[in-house]
Design brief:
With 156 residues, the protein is an alpha+beta fold. Helix content is 40%, strand content 24%. It contains 4 helices and 6 strands, in the order αββββαββαα.
């Protein structure tokens, strides 16, 4: 996959300015940053993928859903996605992996500080918001609709 070297440099410069420790895969142009979560999962890996005039982030938890709870996890994430203004949860039925994806368009390769700050914050914030419910669902057969309603009612 082709990746934008200007965006890659901008990402690295920003991470270094923020003093964020990261790993970089030179072959694929992918950055990885460990981040803390406030939900029961405790941490996530935020992966940045530079593309041509854009970049993606994937905020991923280490735990995967077991096959017997995958349908209810899928329902829960589908309900959580409804109405989200930027990004979405993605779920693999094959292995139970869950991540939150965001996409940032960067015409001319111009990446703003706001985009970079949002790229880290959005996925982490959404995992913090929905993570405890997801954690519960991955361990039981709780009702997805009821958990989403409870979370969203608490926020008023």
């Amino acid at each position: 996959m082709k990746f934008d070297e200007g965006i890659t440099k901008r990402l690295a410069d920003f991470f270094e300015q923020k003093d964020w420790a990261y790993d970089y895969d030179t072959i694929h142009g992918v950055f990885s940053i460990e981040a803390d979560l406030q939900c029961k999962f405790g941490s996530a890996l935020v992966v940045y993928q530079a593309m041509d005039e854009a970049f993606l982030t994937y905020t991923t938890i280490a735990e995967e859903a077991k096959s017997d709870v995958r349908p209810i996890v899928a329902e829960y994430l589908h309900r959580a996605n409804y109405g989200l203004p930027n990004g979405n949860f993605e779920f693999s039925y094959d292995d139970g992996a869950v991540h939150f994806k965001t996409y940032f368009d960067c015409p001319g390769g111009n990446v703003t500080d706001k985009q970079l700050e949002d790229s880290m914050a959005i996925g982490l914030t959404l995992f913090d918001r929905y993570g405890d419910g997801l954690y519960e669902i991955m361990r039981s057969t709780s009702i997805a609709k009821g958990l989403i309603e409870k979370i969203e009612e608490q926020e008023g």
